[in-house]
Amino acid sequence: MPQLKARGVEAIVVLIHEGGEPTCDYNECPDISGSIVDIVKKFDRAVDVVVSGHTHRAYVCQIDRRLVTSGDKYGTLVTEIDSPSIPRRATSSARKPRTSSSPMPRSPMIQSRPR
After folding, report:
1. What is the domain range of residue 85?
2. Closest CA to 44 of 29, 64, 61, 62
3. Which InterPro entries does the UniProt record give (predicted)?
4. Could you tell me the pTM of the whole model?
5. Which candidate, 39, 10, 26, places its Cα nearest to that of 72?
């Protein structure tokens, strides 16, 4: 992390294929469990935001004063992170996940993949 800071990096975002199990709606997060909780707590304090996956659950949480989010499954939700240079986690936020009211056309490339 010191090398990144020395190069002028102001915000560090981790993308990880591990997730959590929230206990409520995706716009709330009073409690979350699962591997992601312990993993985030072990990250260097310089990490500001964690974009997670794996559990196919949607959530926007604060874990150890970091913004931790997951956009559900198969692209059904996208979390928009609004955090001007994330000077410290207290100002970090995420808007309600965005959804599409009509089905999105399927990409021919994605349709050609085995399921």
Report:
1. 2-111
2. 64
3. Metallo-depent_PP-like
4. 0.71
5. 26
